[in-house]
Specification:
This protein is about 40% helix and about 15% strand. Strand 1 and strand 2 form a beta hairpin. With about 190 residues, it is of the alpha+beta class. This is Retrovirus-related Pol polyprotein from type-2 retrotransposable element R2DM.
């Protein structure tokens, strides 16, 4: 039997022998392509697929905050390629942590390598693990100092970690900024 060109409803031409065992395979392939065709809007289709996955579940809320992801498209010259890739990995929660590397392997140890009795997740490492506590404090102080310098450059009088006694005990915020009759209380 000679090869035949046939138009398929999935929007393509298929060349091949449509008779015999080869034709059956070809027809099954065409049927499969029809079944996995992407919806009218590929962006929506792939977004939904990502949000349903383990790695993309946390990203489902990203679209609700305007301009949150502009840095991805900004072509920042200050980031090396390696740093950009690591930032993307952090953004989509796929840095190699013990719990992520042990997915689909129940026998593999998922607990924190610092000895914590908790699963080692990116959230645990960046916000709760005693091993990274000092770095978290350093990062917090760096952000507070950055804000303090920016406010001072704009003419504010800034106080760092002032302590105020109240009826409920002492209250402390990271920064108090004062300019004329305006006062800002900042907890970074």
């Amino acid at each position: 039997m000679a090869p035949v060109q046939t138009w398929q409803p999935c929007g393509c031409y298929v060349w091949g022998c449509l008779g015999g065992s080869g034709g059956g395979y070809l027809q099954r392939l065409v049927d499969r392509v029809k079944n996995i065709q992407i919806a009218n809007n590929p962006k929506t289709y792939f977004s939904e697929k990502l949000y349903q996955s383990v790695d993309g579940r946390a990203l489902s809320e990203c679209a609700k905050t305007k301009n949150q992801n502009d840095w991805v498209k900004s072509r920042n010259r200050f980031l090396s390629g390696k740093d950009f890739i690591n930032l993307i990995k952090t953004r989509i929660n796929c840095l190699p942590t013990a719990s992520r590397c042990a997915r689909d392997r129940p026998a593999k140890d998922k607990y924190c390598r610092a000895g914590c009795p908790r699963k080692e997740t990116l959230n645990h490492i960046s916000q709760a693990c005693p091993r990274t506590h000092g770095k978290r404090i350093d990062r917090h102080n760096a952000v507070a100092n950055y804000i303090k310098r920016a406010l001072e450059n704009r003419g504010y009088e800034v106080y760092s970690e002032p302590c105020y006694p109240t009826s409920m005990g002492k209250r402390t915020s990271d920064l108090i900024a004062k300019k004329e009759s305006r006062i800002l209380v900042i907890d970074a």
